[in-house]
Design brief:
Blueprint: H1 7-18, H2 23-30, H3 34-44, E1 46-49, E2 125-128, H4 131-141, H5 153-168, H6 173-179, H7 181-184, H8 188-196, H9 234-242
Antiparallel strand pairs: 1-2
Helix pairs in contact: 1-4, 2-3
Length: about 240
């Protein structure tokens, strides 16, 4: 079985998201780990600025009650929404009272708007998972290096913000991983590796159980000093015969 998701797998993920299935249920159906599904959705989804029929994209918190007019100062505005600036897609660029309304759906699993019932009538910034776009983006990243830390700085900062206060409060990494597996989007082993690499504010000394473990014995590698080969190559041998 391939460790990479196929296009058919991504079609199933998209369909199950619309059915509001959990990461665990999707992972069980595809034979993958739930963190794989969470990473797939968070990594390959994208923001989409769109409104609804008759209403443009408008993420303002006061869009439903706003009655402001001619905020942009264009007295000769020819927009059909000139009588009410909240119906104009450009009102947020000029209004001094603009406050962005961020939907809470994107803050919790599945982190996208695909299965939201309010999607057809929503005018906020949307987070969309499209299987075709996701497959294309994933295909471009397959050829990248697989060595070193695979998370970017924003992912490290997000995980650090989540686990650091919990560890300092006395919780173990295992307990944190069990309760926040969908938010962490990485394996438990990866968390320990990141702590070893000192990528978080916490250190191994903050993990009472881990400091009791003895470091694993690693057999030393035998390396040949290349300096011993100087003057002993085949070309050097031929030169010796010519003398």
């Amino acid at each position: 079985m391939s460790k990479f998701l196929s296009y058919e797998d991504r079609l199933i993920i998209s369909q199950r998201i619309q059915e509001n299935a959990s990461f665990g249920a999707i992972a069980k159906e595809l034979g993958k780990d739930r963190t794989t599904i969470a990473k797939e959705i968070r990594k390959y989804s994208y923001d989409k600025k769109s409104g609804r029929p008759g209403y443009p994209y408008n993420p303002c918190k006061y869009r439903n009650s706003c009655k402001a007019k001619k905020i942009c100062g264009a007295n000769g505005c020819t927009h059909q929404s000139a009588y009410k600036c909240s119906l104009c897609s450009e009102c947020t660029f000029h209004c001094p009272d603009f406050e962005e309304d961020i939907c809470s759906v994107k803050r919790k699993p599945p982190y996208v708007c695909n299965g939201c019932r309010a999607l057809p009538r929503c005018t906020l910034l949307k987070r969309i998972y499209d299987p075709a776009d996701a497959h294309e983006m994933a295909h471009k990243t397959i050829s990248e290096s697989r060595t070193g830390i695979l998370s970017n700085e924003s992912d490290i900062a997000r995980i650090n913000k989540l686990i650091t206060p919990l560890v300092k409060n006395g919780q173990s990494l295992h307990q944190i991983y069990t309760e926040h597996v969908d938010e962490l989007m990485c394996s438990e082993k990866t968390l320990y590796n990141y702590v070893d690499a000192q990528l978080f504010e916490i250190r191994n000394i903050d993990l009472p159980r881990k400091v009791k473990y003895r470091p694993r014995y690693k057999q030393p590698e035998f390396k040949v000093d290349r300096g011993c080969r100087l003057g002993r190559s085949y070309s050097d041998f031929q030169k010796f015969l010519e003398k």
